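seq/struct pair 1
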Amino acid sequence: MRKTSPNISTRLALYAVLVIVGFSLSYGLGFIKGSNQRLTAANFSAIFGSGFGAAEKTVPNFGLYETVLDLMKTKYIGDIDYLNVLYGTIKGAVAGLGDPYTSFSTPEENNEFFNSLSGTYEGVGVEIEFVGDRLLVISTLEGSPAVTAGLQPKDEILAVDGKVVTGMTISQAVSLIQGPRGSEVVLTIWREGDGDPRDIKLTRQVVKVASVRLDIKDEIATLRINKFGSDTEQLFNKAVSRILSDGAKGIVLDMRNNPGGFLDVGVKVANEFLPGGMIVEERFRDGKTTPFSADGSGKLKDLPIVVLVDAGSASAAEIVAGAIRDNLRGQLIGENTYGKGSVQEVEEFSDGSALRITVAHWFTPLGTSISDGGLKPDIVVKNGKEGDAQLDKAISELKKLTTQLSS
């Protein structure tokens, strides 16, 4: 995915989640400038489009909103920033959809959102989102304070420095967790099966993570993709060239704790492993479908492959994993994936704000809904406190495949 000019839609296979590294996802759609240009029932309709009036019979009377604004103007003791009021209003409208992946960001937040995919982060290195009223960890960034502290996907953050997060917005939670490098923050965490919550102290730092890393040992290539970001395609292509030039006999594709990223990058990555066939299908509310298929040019289509996934594997990572398995190219090893199978379309506006709105759902080539509980691995392996049992199992299974092919 590329950042486009204002008012151009861009399709994302991206979590509506937050990397707590100096950026946040929140609530911007555009605004009315100046304190004298306040929102009314009339221009409220204009903002939401000409089709708004056609739904009058099912839409509440927005005159109530104008009444509230009038009361604020005449009775509120402080100054009113109408731009903040409008942003807050639209934030509430988006939240009213009940979809955690549909979000609304101010110009500053939208800029930070795209910058976050550059691979350099300052903070504790954890990606979070509100699911209902629960603030959950989606994944942790490799080498970050979050990993060192032992945070895991689906841990629930109850409080930050003793302040309960219930009722907060993502932005408010982020503002508590963010801070200068070297400073400390205490997260109160509850993990299913652990009983009582516990406090975890983290020291904020700069986290630099390349989205692709390759290690070749004993003719086995371990290809780690942390996310599908702005640097992924270039780094992945270099890794492919090295895999071929070094004569690797098989590939372990490690997408554990990969929260997703750009859909087009995920499709290109999947394409390299497939001789043909569907990669993923988008299904829209009107029944229309958009299939994405491999073109048969994949440079790695003949090499044996196994895929490592876990609860932090989501979105584009699930698309790639599902495509490889459903096209009978490789097995999934590890733990059940996250289950983020919805498509967000990004509308950027002239002021720099943006609306990320869910427009479709993803299905694997064999028709499995990614949103319906994620992808279950073919071989379930849970990691213990020491070593990497999942990676060990993946290498073991891959060596069996390479041995069979060479015999």
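seq/struct pair 2
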Amino acid sequence: MVGSAAPAAGVVPKHQRPKAKDVLRAIGRPKVAVMLVLGFAAGLPFMLIGNTLGYWMREGGIDLKVIGFASWVGLAYTLKFLWAPIIDRVSAPVAGRLGRRRGWMILAQIGIGAGLIGMALIGPKAGMGFFWLAGLTAFCAATQDIVVDAWRIEIADDPDELGLLTAAYSLGYRAALLCTEALILLLAAAVGWPASYATFGLMMAIGVGATLFAREPERADAVLEAKEREAPLWTPRGLFDAIAGPFITFFKTHGRWALLMLVMITLYHLSDYMRGPISNPFYHDLGLAKTTVGIVRGSIGLWCTIAGVAVGGLTGVHLGYFRTLIIGAVIQPLFIAPFGLLALAGPNTTLFSVIMGLDAFAIGFSGVALVAYMSSLTSLGYTASQYAVLTSAVNFTGKSLKGFSGAIVDGLQQGRDLMHAYALFYAGAALAGIPAVILCVILARPRKDKPVATTVEPAPAE
């Protein structure tokens, strides 16, 4: 979110930080309501090809190492910057008549729904066929992310609206994560995993409906059409601009701090990513029932997530943007470490509920701060490509390393029982969050050459 006076990157003026009640009041606005639903559609496949998939596989007797390696299908989120320039400059086949952004949204959403239903039909015991389907679903999910993020930034009429849309997106996304972490466990306990995955595949129709109600960001389309007229994509100049332009503009805008920003972003959620593939297998091995995990996530987890998003926004207002990022970087690993205590305490439902609540609060708090920060760093004309680079940076280190999480637990189990191995693993995951805290502190220090962000141009004075 960027002020009309072009503030320094990462510094968000106070009037742009909406409170949770502002978002709820604004749901009646068509753009905000559409953004809320698109946020839900963007979040829906994330856990179904990640942590929740690990639960299904573990119940099917799949080895922890295989579960960890299977999480690498999520690397599509890391590599999406490779095809983001195409999304920026080329209309979707067939669906392109809906517009540059809406066409790709529809295509990606249909692919996600079909992929999830296909996974439901064949199941993890089908071997490589199942993982190819999971990979295709991940590719479509990453493509949807590219377009939804670009639409969110480009459709905003002013910086205040960008903040509102970002908050609505975060709420919708978090709601989807809770459904695919909590509700699906209750559903799977009642009707089984295949029927549950098929149900959520059909739920992608909600995203398709929101896309049809959305309107194209005309100002961004005009910029992209001007680029195409000046240097068509098929010309050497146009191809160079599509591929290298987003990077050149980003580093020119943010100067020597650009690389440090990217490193901080890629390490910010490292603790959370590292423990991700192991979380649900851990609950299974600990002896917690699916219904218990689902109920706790859907009740305490839900309200603590909402509280985290709301408090994150309020903290930004009262303490400033980078202080909020620092707090988020601190509380993530701080509230992940207690899962190690749970491993030693056994299946204590009360302790599990408290730890789950703290963890949900930390993820909600830190997530909304990082999304808003990254939104402030893009430039009109390269929105999809630059934001894809930033979100790829978020995913790069964590999604690359988390594939080894199962192997790490197996290695720690040598000479120990499984629960002590889990305890050591969670302690290590917490320690992995320290570098992000240090980098946030460095970036927050006053400096003379603060770069300028150019996400949203100011609205004309009336």
